[in-house]
Amino acid sequence: MNIGEAAKGSGVSAKMIRYYEQTGLIPSAGRAASGYRTYTGTDVQMLRFIRRARDLGFQVEAIGELLALWRDRSRHSADVKQLAQAQIAGLRRKITEMESMVATLEHLAQGCSGDDRPDCPIIADLEGEASLVAPACHSGQGFNR
Amino acid sequence: MNIGEAAKGSGVSAKMIRYYEQTGLIPSAGRAASGYRTYTGTDVQMLRFIRRARDLGFQVEAIGELLALWRDRSRHSADVKQLAQAQIAGLRRKITEMESMVATLEHLAQGCSGDDRPDCPIIADLEGEASLVAPACHSGQGFNR
DNA sequence: ATAGGCCTTCCCATCATTGGAAGGTCAAGC
DNA sequence: GCTTGACCTTCCAATGATGGGAAGGCCTAT
Prior knowledge:
Chain A is mostly helical and 145 residues long. Chain A is 58% helix and 3% strand. Chain A has six helices and two strands; from the N terminus they run ααββαααα. In chain A, strands 1-2 form a two-stranded antiparallel sheet. In chain A, β1 and β2 (37-38) form a beta hairpin. At the A-B interface, α3, α4, α5 and α6 of A face α3, α4, α5 and α6 of B. The first copy, chain A, binds a DNA duplex (30 and 30 nucleotides) through residues 2-4, 13-16, 18-19, 34-37, 54, 59-61, 145.
């Protein structure tokens, strides 16, 4: 089948399929005499694998490792589990960060009258002055950047 | 003061300060005879404002709006609050997505023996076959991409 | 033969940030 | 005065994953 059909069948766009090939995540597809890439059912299955891993938030690099384990019939499930747990840990870290942001924002928004007056604890907090509402202690630093 | 000192004082890197100037987020800094950018205490305060907004996860575009409100003494706190609430909503959406990923991954990892045997429900799930452990119903689609 | 739908490659843009190269400036010490 | 090192300047490039588009080739049905 051609790339369009593989894209439809896998949920990975044709653009991304070419990109994954280019970056070495997947092997080069076969080519028809016309120069068109050709895909088999197995290829589509691999692309679906990638799609699902991507939907679980794995980065492409980690997906490469997952693919290698997938292909390795003598893999150790411990290796797979480790990747999954690293992914869980990474997601948890980001979730925690964002939750802290939400908590701060909610605290600030709650103290904001939200009317036509200019006074606003949100602005005050961003200004770096002590919050007009409460110490907030929101700037836990240690952000991802 | 020079850009380095402004960077230190604000927590925004010199690189980013130049970038923010270039993209119009902040006005062009003054220049010394040498061509060096010069900053005042007010500038540093503005940069700190940006830094804190950034730490709350605001995108640069939203920070521009916040800066405009900050400078607008006749602002309506409702406008500020709205930006904050939009930010909260966006963060919450991402958190929910990630939590769903974590839930799926945990479920799968829990069923993985994590030893030297190759059988692994994580791989099985990514393969797209019915999970060996449970229906999982993890692929809720509707992801951010 | 022609239309239009698919494919190819190549380049560009995103977003926020970092890195580096090549070169100018400043301040301190000799 | 001169050197040195720290700082500054601009410009260009890369990141990661993706989308957009142009210019041109291929395929199939009418």
